[in-house]
Amino acid sequence: MDLADLYRDVIVDHNKRPRNFGRLEHPNRTAEGHNPLCGDKLHIFLDVEGDLIRDIRFEGRGCAISTASASLMSEAVKGRRVADVQHLFASVHDMLTRHDAPVPAELGKLAALSGVREYPARVKCASLCWHTLNAALADEAAPVTTE
Ligand code: ZN
């Protein structure tokens, strides 16, 4: 099995069985995101204490890439410090937008999304959850749109 097959399997798996899918009973930060280009919609719920993301859930409807990306992101940021998550977001953004950039090892399973950079229209599908997470952390009331 080559790397492209492995990455495809990770995306298929996270789309079929998204992790941390649903709502938190008592979230203290939430944000909604929308990618009109594809029709992806996302609602993120966070339990943040100080600079720690204690818990995260998400709901939404979207394409396989947007759902898998949100699922992978939720696993990657749960239990992490906000500063680490912002650093991770910068690495993910580089991975999705810079064709020649090597994928840093710290991205772990998130590397499965690296193939998306060959398809510019899908980059917004993969990055929607990260922009929405950022808005939730910043406590912004207005919904996020990738347009
Ligand atoms: Zn999409």
Walkthrough of the structure:
- The protein has four helices and four strands.
- The chain has helices at residues 3-16, 64-77, 82-97, 120-137, and strands at 29-35, 40-49, 52-61, 144-145.
- Strands 3-2-1-4 form a four-stranded mixed sheet, covered by helices on one side.
- The chain is globular.
- The termini are far apart.
- Zinc ion binds at residues 35, 38, 40, 62-63, 65-66, 125.
Secondary-structure element series: HEEEHHHE
Cofactors and ligands present?
zinc ion
Shape: globular
- CATH class group: Alpha Beta
Return the structural class: alpha+beta
Mean pLDDT figure: 93
End-to-end distance: 37 Å
Architecture in CATH? Alpha-Beta Complex
Helix share bin: 40-55%
Rg to the nearest angstrom?
A: 14 Å
Number of domains: 1
Number of helices: 4
Major β-sheet annotation: 4 strands, mixed
The low-confidence parts are none
Total strand segments = 4
Per the CATH scheme, the topology name is Sufe protein. Chain: A
In order across it, which strands form the biggest sheet? 3-2-1-4
| Approximate strand percentage | 15-25%
Give the key terms.
147 residues; Sufe protein. Chain: A; 4-stranded mixed β-sheet; 4 strands; 42% helix; globular; binds zinc ion
In short:
With 147 residues, the protein is α+β, with helices and mostly antiparallel strands.
Question: Topology, please?
Answer:
Layout: H1 3-16, E1 29-35, E2 40-49, E3 52-61, H2 64-77, H3 82-97, H4 120-137, E4 144-145
Helix pairs in contact: 1-2, 2-4, 3-4
The structure holds zinc ion.
Zinc ion binds at residues 35, 38, 40, 62-63, 65-66, 125.
